[in-house]
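Shipment paperwork, digital attachment
Item: protein structure file
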Amino acid sequence: MENILRPLIVIGGSIVLPLLIGWATDLLLRKADERHTDTPLWGLLRRARIPYQVVLCAAVLRGSYDEARLLEEYEVGIGRVLTLVLIGATAWLMVGIAASVVETSYSHYARAHRDPARVRRVRTQVTLIMRVVAAIVGVVAVAAMLLTFPAMRAAGASLLASAGILGIVAGVAAQSTLGNMFAGLQIAFGDMVRIGDTVVVDGEWGTVEEITLTFLTVRTWDERRITMPVSYFTSKPFENWSRGGAQMTGIVYWQVDHSAPVEAMREQLRDILRECPAWDGRHYGLDVTDATASTMEVRALMTAKDADDIWTVRVTVRERMIRWLAEQHPYALPRVNTADAVLPPGHVDGRAFRDGSAYRRAHDTPRSGDR
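Attachment content:
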């Protein structure tokens, strides 16, 4: 009877007790979250309740399994498995707690600062910090798991003896990866590009959606994703439309006839912008910037608060101005002239005359073909 009750009491107690402790802890966190609504820390910590219970269960089982006297011939293997589970669950719990603390700090910072650029910069930094912390904790956890095996401890001395050569070989083999990792840290803390920035890369316009230690993802206006190594942004030029403020100036060009009413176009541009909600009201203008033998180039400038609004303003101005010209001033649209050229005064059939009498005599003299 003792051989049956002892394992049930030890193993059952090792499972039930952590579950009760986990439930009580979760209840306390829930009440703290309801009481302190100004901080999301307690609600975020509740996400780590599963690894917390696994840590408790693995620790209690590891410490009390010897008393169960169950499967004694496999006691060493079971103890090692429980140790591995305990190490992995502890790493999982540490990452969850660190993520909760970092996310809470970012939320407080985002509420306290109104500058979107600074908020995006901090968001990029905390994201990369969390990735670095997760990577370090993961490496340490894997190393701790390997050290639980005697063979690994015995091989440690020989590995340390050849650490210099292995380091050189690994450095050469992982040169690109290490370069991207250092470039990711440089982007995070050098404030070159942030999550949410509007950038133009290789002629593609989009928004930075994700930044990791090795790659960066840009979401284009047509919802495509461009993934590129972060080292690109430290070695090649690119446009960052969100740097130093999101306000932008847009340009629209038209090719019109020389007879186009420029002053009326200025007034029409003003009326169009006043009716466009995306225009921020800072500035506008219309000028003739070039002329050719058949047309002249008219350029319009307008401003908006960000890249999305400047796109809306540009397409609105372009469409409504062309429609207004077609309806009110169709002669101002570019066309191809097919009429005969008007000769200067005093020219007939390619001949020039000094005075009007010579012109009349030549004009009145009958030609041989008319006789």
